[in-house]
Amino acid sequence: MPNPLPPDPPIALASKDHDLIEKANRALGRLDGVTTLLPDVSLLLYFYVRKEAVLSSQIEGTQSSFSDLLLHEESLAPGVPLDDVQEVSNYVAAMNHGLKRLREDDFPLSLRLIREMHKVLLSKGRGSDKTPGEFRRSQNWLGGTRPGNARFVPPPPDHVAECMSNLEKFLHDQPSRTPVLIKAALAHVQFETIHPFLDGNGRLGRLLITLVLCAEGALAQPLLYLSLFFKQHRQEYYDRLNAVRLKGDWLGWLRFFLEGVEQTAQQAADTAGRILKLFDEDRRKIEDLGRKAGSVHRMHDLLRRHPITTISNATKQLSMTTPTVGSAIESLETLGLVREITGKQRDRIYVYDPYVKIFDEGTQPLP
Q: What is the pLDDT of residues 45-100, one digit of tens each?
């Protein structure tokens, strides 16, 4: 049974911890600054949300890659594990639902919103029989075959509503105001410890971090996701969560979390810069094609939005003839920007290779 937040006694921050908070805040500020330079920040958001969905689901054991998800969304995904890719697709939908409610509907970060997102997360495929959108009414546990030999046993079901109500109060700064990065860090552990649903707790708990940062105005765009950091340090991630539960080591967790925020924000800012540079360099290469440049530019613009496509899909979306699209793709292949991935003569699939490779970094499934 977790005690209500904030911790009592309060976390004793040393001067180096204040430095960590300052560094993490500066990295968030840089990330916000870089996004203002992008001609279309919605493009970066679109693919970053999908990368986060892949990574967070991989921590839970799915095997889908970033490319699998794009193939699935373009209805080009024969042979990918459907349950896995559906799970990732649900995560994207849940994330978008939560962000839309916060931004467009001016809805508070609340238990109702968390339940709504959970309902979307488990709407189809694996877990759809685990009471989506409802707090659990039975005991769950992690590891082992029963609570008696489990690695971790969350609160009994009749205490879930009380624990979650306390968490909601903390999110709304009751009984006292908590700085946003510390709030996001503590709320994540508390949510994972309560484990309020029968399934999907890990994914929703990681998503809660981004929702807190957006709801509090720490991020103008929802571009910070810690799943890659948690995946790369998976054992330490689990050990830090357990150290809070067993020893009350909030400070150890907070330091780990702040290091993750700083690293992840820097990586996201670097990614945005690399994409800007890639688009600019590729546009210059296309300019050198002379008369063909016009149709190739249009194809390049489409690939920025849909980096995996077919000639027939591109023909429909661009309202261009099949030979014109085929010629544009051939030009992009010659420039090294596009790669055909099936090896077949028919129903060929093309990928904007350098672009997808940037987002693919770190998304190889765990062994």
A: 778 778 887 888 788 776 677 777 777 766 655 555 556 667 777 888 898 899 89
CATH class of 288-360: mainly alpha
Number of Cβ atoms within 10 Å of the Cβ of 365: 15
Cα(339)–Cα(198) distance, integer angstroms: 42
Query: What DSSP letter does each residue of 179-240 carry, written as one string?
Result: -HHHHHHHHHHHHHHH--SSS-HHHHHHHHHHHHHHHTTS-SS-----HHHHHHTHHHHHHH
Cα distance between residue 231 and residue 154, in whole Å: 22
Distance CA 61, CA 64 (A): 9
> What local confidence, expressed as pLDDT, does residue 76 receive?
58
Please report, as a single letter, which amino acid is at residue 341: I
How many CB atoms sit inside 10 A of residue 323's CB?
Answer: 10
Place of tokens 């040393």: 14
Give this prediction's pTM.
0.87
Tokens of 327: 């010629």
Give residue 41's pLDDT band: very low, low, confident or very high (50, 70, 90). confident
Architecture of domain 15-271: Orthogonal Bundle (1.10)
- Both tokens of 21, joined, read 């908070």
- Enumerate the CATH 1.10.10.10 domain ranges in the chain, comma separated: 288-360
CB atoms within 10 A of CB 72: 18
